[in-house]
Amino acid sequence: MKRSLSLILCAVFAVALFVPSLAEAASDKPRIAVLAFQNKADNQWWYHGGAEAAQDVFVTELVKSGKFRVIDREQLDALLREKNLSLSGDVDPSTAVKAGKLLGVQYFLTGAVTEYGATDSGAHGRSIGRLPGFNAGKRSFTAAMNARIIDTTTGEILWADEARGEDSKVKVSVGGFGGGVDNDQRMFDKVMRPVIEELTASIKNADL
Length: 208
Fold this sequence. Notes:
Elements: H1 2-28, E1 31-34, E2 38-39, H2 44-65, E3 69-70, H3 73-82, H4 93-103, E4 107-125, E5 134-151, E6 157-174, E7 177-178, H5 184-205
Parallel strand pairs: 1-3, 1-4, 2-4
Antiparallel strand pairs: 4-5, 5-6, 6-7
Helix pairs in contact: 2-5
């Protein structure tokens, strides 16, 4: 009985020592906020959900990297409203320094979407008699993004990179049946998400 009690006390003591070390390790991580990326591709979906979707994916991937304490997008929006600030992907270093002090973050991740859209190519034929018409072609999706991390203490750009992704889908319809068009969300998943994952992998490997 005494031996069991001793083992339990040892285990509790070990946990008590271990938990503070975890808290200290977490507090040592720099705090980062992901700003809305500038839309240089002029894609309308980006204004209606695309920008927020990209921010959320960046937040998730940065958390998974284990390098940062990351501010949630909704929390960041609330802080910006509270401090009466407006920040986007084209934030300049001097503004980043001031905003970083107000928001309590060490880094800002900013950038721009430079390409985002789809192009179609192919051929079509008219119906002749009982033979139905047809459409055959390929829809190509393209996305490109540049990003950088700004140190809010110095205004220095510590990291910068860019990534580009492409995907395509063959579509065929005969007599009005078949084919189909990918919507914006599917296009985001096909090309933009891999671009963001590539950029966050670059951040993970950077010496920050």
